[in-house]
């Protein structure tokens, strides 16, 4: 049991247990008075005993009613209650039975270093009073109330320790939940930043890069012939218009959706030929409706991979293969370009290098598998496979 004063404030003086203590005190006070009248009658000290019992009841009642006030006032008010009770018990030992509710109050109001001596003193005083009532010098008469007081103190102390431990565990759970919520919020923010980075890289950045290549080609033609290349300028304008549309989609958090397999394959073809107009597109297996999130990821992977082919591969031939499997769908983007070392492409900067990381992250979020096979001088194959639940068919 703690030596501080927090135990009483933790449990307070209200609630079912407190009401039971108060009720038992008044019941024992009344029955002790009835016994006193039955044994001693209304002569002698009856008037003084009656006055003391009434004062004790009033003092106790005031403390019980005002128990919502500060702990200091309750502790201060308890001393008149104890003093009146001690005088009453000394004059009329029959009232010693009301000691047991008072024991609980002492334990609840005071820290253990004060409450335990008070409980022992009350138990000893009750034992002496019982001895005076019975008139027999029996050891059990003296030790019984003292042992009862000790048991009450031990039991209540254990209750308080259990209550404090429950409060401590509840606080720990609340703190852990708060920390978990903060972590989840931070993770959500990081995931959203990553998602937006992928979307911008795979849409606006790629389209603008393609438009820049077209304009640079037109500029070279202009320097050579004195007039720009109309097809290059038209292609650059188309890419810029596409970038504008994609930017609006990002603002409104839109994603390409498909209502049937034909729509999905048309979107795949458009994404491929945006950067590789002559690329070969092939489908294998029996087509089925692809869930929108997976269709969106496949289109983004194709856009990013074909853009890399245009910017870096210097390939003569490139193609995309969509394969419908029993419980999955896969996409393979291949080229016969200069290739690269996949192990050296993990880092990225403002000048590039983000594409593979973004593709890998996008595929992993949907539970898919992403592989890159490439050797310098021997082309590149990028493959992504996504699991498909049968109910999506």
Structure described in brief:
The chain has helices at about 5-10, 15-40, 45-65, 70-90, 100-110, 110-135, 140-225, 230-250, 260-275, 290-315, 355-365, and strands spanning about 280-285, 320-325, 330-335, 370-375, 380-385.
Write the layout of secondary structure elements.
Elements: H1 6-11, H2 16-40, H3 46-65, H4 71-91, H5 99-109, H6 112-134, H7 139-225, H8 230-251, H9 261-273, E1 280-284, H10 292-313, E2 318-324, E3 328-335, H11 355-365, E4 369-374, E5 380-387
Parallel strand pairs: 1-2
Antiparallel strand pairs: 2-3, 3-5, 4-5
Helix pairs in contact: 2-3, 2-5, 3-4, 4-5, 5-6, 5-7, 6-7, 7-8, 7-10, 7-11, 9-10, 10-11
Structural class computed from helices and strand pairing: alpha+beta
Task: Spell out the helices and strands N to C.
Answer: HHHHHHHHHEHEEHEE
- Helix percent reads 55-70%
CATH superfamily of the domain at 255-393: Histidine kinase-like ATPase, C-terminal domain
Shape type:
rod-shaped
Q: Report the end-to-end length measured between terminal Cα atoms.
A: 65 Å
Give keywords.
alpha+beta; 5-stranded mixed sheet; 11 helices; rod-shaped; disordered N terminus; Heat Shock Protein 90; 393 residues
Describe this structure in words.
By secondary structure, the protein is an alpha+beta fold. It contains 11 helices and 5 strands. The longest helix has 87 residues, at 139-225. Mean pLDDT is 75; it is low at 1-12, 252-259 and 348-352.
């Amino acid at each position: 049991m703690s030596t501080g004063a927090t135990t009483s404030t933790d449990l307070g003086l209200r609630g079912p247990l407190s009401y039971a203590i108060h009720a038992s005190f008044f019941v024992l006070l009344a029955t002790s008075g009835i016994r006193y009248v039955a044994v001693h009658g209304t002569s002698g000290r009856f008037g003084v005993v009656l006055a003391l019992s009434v004062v004790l009841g009033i003092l106790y009642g005031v403390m019980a009613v005002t128990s919502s006030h500060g702990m200091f006032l309750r502790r201060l008010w308890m001393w008149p209650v104890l003093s009146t009770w001690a005088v009453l018990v000394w004059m009329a030992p029959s009232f010693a039975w009301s000691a047991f509710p008072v024991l609980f109050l002492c334990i609840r109001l005071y820290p253990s270093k004060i409450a335990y001596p008070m409980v022992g003193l009350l138990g000893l005083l009750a034992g002496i009073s019982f001895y005076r009532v019975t008139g027999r010098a029996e050891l059990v008469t003296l030790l019984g109330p003292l042992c009862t007081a000790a048991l009450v103190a031990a039991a209540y102390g254990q209750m308080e320790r259990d209550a404090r431990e429950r409060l401590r565990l509840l606080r720990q759970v609340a703190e852990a939940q708060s920390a978990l919520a903060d972590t989840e919020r931070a993770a959500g923010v990081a995931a959203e930043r990553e998602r937006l980075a992928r979307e911008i890289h795979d849409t606006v950045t790629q389209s603008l890069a393609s438009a820049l290549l077209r304009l640079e080609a037109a500029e070279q033609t202009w320097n050579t012939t004195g007039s720009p290349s109309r097809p290059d300028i038209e292609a650059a304008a188309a890419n810029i218009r596409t970038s504008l549309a994609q930017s609006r989609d990002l603002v409104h958090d839109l994603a390409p959706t498909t209502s049937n397999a034909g729509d999905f394959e048309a979107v795949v073809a458009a994404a491929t030929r945006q950067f590789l107009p002559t690329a070969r597109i092939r489908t294998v297996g029996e087509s089925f409706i692809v869930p929108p999130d997976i269709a969106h990821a496949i289109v983004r992977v194709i856009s990013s991979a074909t853009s890399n082919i245009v910017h870096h591969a210097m390939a003569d031939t490139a193609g995309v293969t969509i394969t419908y499997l029993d419980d999955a769908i896969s996409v393979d983007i291949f080229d016969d370009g200069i290739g690269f070392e996949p192990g050296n492409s993990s880092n990225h900067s403002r000048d590039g290098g983000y594409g593979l990381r973004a593709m890998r992250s996008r595929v992993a979020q949907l539970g898919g598998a992403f592989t890159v096979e490439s050797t310098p001088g021997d082309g590149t194959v990028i493959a992504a496979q996504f699991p498909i639940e049968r109910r999506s068919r």
